[in-house]
Amino acid sequence: MIQKTLAACLVLASVAFPPLSGVRAEESLAGVDLTSAEMTQAELTRDEVEAILAAAAPGKPADFSSKRLSGLDLSGLDFSGAILRSTRLNASKLVGANLQNAVLDQAWLLKADLTDANLKGAHLFQAQAQGARLDGADLSGALVSSNLTKASLRGAKFVGADLSADMRNQSMGLMRGVLRSADLRGADFTGANLSRTDFEFALLQGANLTDANLMSATLGGADLTGSTVTGANFNNADVNSATLKNLTGETDSNLTKAANLTRAFRD
């Protein structure tokens, strides 16, 4: 009986939180009712959220695991160190919120607004942030193996962030940063680990990729016009149909190691 119950729980978990980061956005949400109360309605008010945050203490962070907070205006609140694992924050406003070192594993952030939010050192493992807005957000040092397809991240900071695929833990599919068709103009990826990250058709004009690790990343159709690539590792990065014009810091030791370089659009 225990085994059957556990098996049933695992099936339900896989339906509620499928391994989405390694598949197409339109496929990843298949079977998920995004119009349901579970995904669109909040079970707490802003005042109640503030009360939980105020009650947090050292060693006892505010815990919103699996809570429904979708649609709330939580702008400017201090969620630093908070647990937001599997929390629903779809279409929520977190403008200027402090989420430093917060745990957002498997959180739902579809079309959420995190403009200028502080996400330094945050943990976003398989968070679903398709269509979210993170313009000017700071994700320096954060783990971002999340789905950010079609998200707006203009001027966002990913300094020292990790968006790579952990090849030691891929039993549920390729879990990595997915930024397909994302707007990353002017984003700062200095020293970031972008190995195997998916940037297909992303806008990366003017991005700073200094010392970034792009080994085996997918850059097909991406636009890197005017980007800085000094010291970047493009070993086996797929640049098929990518736009690689007016780059700063391009050398024979980095970009020439990319895959399909002859199929890229260059000066």
Look at the helices and sheets and give the structural class. little secondary structure
Compute the number of helices: 4
- Helical percent range? 10-25%
User: Sheet bearing the most strands, described?
Assistant: 2 strands, parallel
Shape estimate: elongated
User: Into which percentage range does the β-strand content fall?
Assistant: 5-15%
Gyration radius over CA: 19 Å
**Helices and strands, in N-to-C order?**
HHHHEEEE
Strand order of the largest sheet: 1-2
Q: Give the CA-CA distance, first to last residue.
A: 66 Å
Report the uncertain regions.
1-23
Number of strands: 4
Mean pLDDT figure? 90
In short:
The protein is largely without helices or strands and 267 residues long. Helix content is 12%, strand content 6%. The chain contains 4 helices and 4 strands.
Key traits:
two-stranded parallel ribbon, 12% helix, two-stranded parallel sheet, elongated, 267 residues, little secondary structure, 4 strands, 4 helices
